[in-house]
Amino acid sequence: MTAEKIDPEVIYLYDKYCHGEIDRREFMRRASVMTIGGVSALAMATSLLPRYAEAQTISFTDERIKANYVNYASPGGNSGEMRGYLVQPVGDGPFTPVLVIHENRGLNPHIEDVARRFAAAGFLALAPDGLAPAGGYPGNDDDGRTLQQSLDGDKMLQDMANSAEYLYSHELATGDLRITGFCYGGYVTNFLAAKLGDKVSAGAPFYGRGVTMEEAANISAELMIQAAEDDRNINAAWPDYEAALNANNVNYVRHMYPGTAHGFHNNSTARFHEEAAQLAWDRMIEFFS
Q1: Phi and psi dihedrals of 223, rounded to 5?
Q2: What is the reported pTM?
Q3: Nearest in space to 216 (alpha carbons), one of 194, 247, 242, 189
Q4: What is the pLDDT along the chain (289 residues), one digit of tens a residue?
Q5: DSSP characters for 174-242?
């Protein structure tokens, strides 16, 4: 089932589930009592659950890349240490570094696949696991989301900032850092662009909330903001972030993708919009290059 065939109210309900406002049982219960054209919405709801094995696009054994997990210090974070998935193209480098920030459930297989896609495109990619201080991504998104909610949010942001610093200083990196992220990771992209100032050359947040007027004053990176057409909460907050960017003369462009919902780039669920996701990816790769 594709995103175009799923009723927007079901997608909105799934969005509430993804962001922890309701659990899976409640998501399924509400979907089961919804009727779309006289038919239960349960099948639509079930199709939205992620299928990571089917969604993999770049194998970890792909001959174009080298992938491994790395550990590094993270002072001020949730435990003082962090772990991330580092993927490089085959070759001696240096390579343009890209930090890839996960959603609100830790470093799941989809985000690892995105990191491999960047490496296959010639970038040095690091995907940090914000759940590393608590043992790492637990193997499923429900437990991952609960675990992420249990950690100190400010300290997790520091863990992400330390991850950016680690990548920025990596011996294989050119030094001009790019950052992207999805949902929570979209917000972190905006946050790190503000926190790290001129260390960040470019940011491409996907459907993430912005930062404050005061924080935006420190952004020197160029931003490519990737937005879904049907994304009620993020789009409602856009005017305030737009005003902050304009007031601080930040160089940005915002792309709105028609017919898409929050999460449209994630090909592991039926929210995936293939045409828009490919266009957003191509634009980002050109922008980061």
Answers
A1: -120, 140
A2: 0.89
A3: 194
A4: 455 567 777 777 777 777 677 777 787 788 676 766 655 666 776 667 677 778 899 998 999 999 999 999 999 999 999 999 999 999 999 999 999 999 999 999 999 999 999 999 999 999 999 999 999 999 888 899 999 999 999 999 999 999 999 999 999 999 899 999 999 999 999 999 999 999 999 999 999 999 999 999 999 999 999 999 999 999 999 999 999 999 999 999 999 999 999 999 999 988 899 999 999 999 999 999 9
A5: -S-EEEEEETHHHHHHHHHHHHHGGGEEEEEEES-----HHHHTT--SEEEEEEEEE-HHHHHHHHHHH
Residue 189: both structure tokens together: 């992209």
- The answer to whether 58 and 116 have CB atoms below 8 angstroms apart is yes
Residues of the chain with CATH 3.40.50.1820: 59-288
Lookup: tokens for 101: 């920030």
Neighbours of 92 (CB within 10 A): 8
Nearest to 226 by CA among 177, 265, 179: 265
Question: Which CATH number fits the domain 59-288, given the four candidates 3.40.50.1820, 2.30.30.60, 3.10.590.10, 3.40.1190.20?
Answer: 3.40.50.1820
Asked if 167 contacts 173 with a C-beta cutoff of 8 angstroms, the reply is yes
Residue 35 pairs in a beta bridge with 40
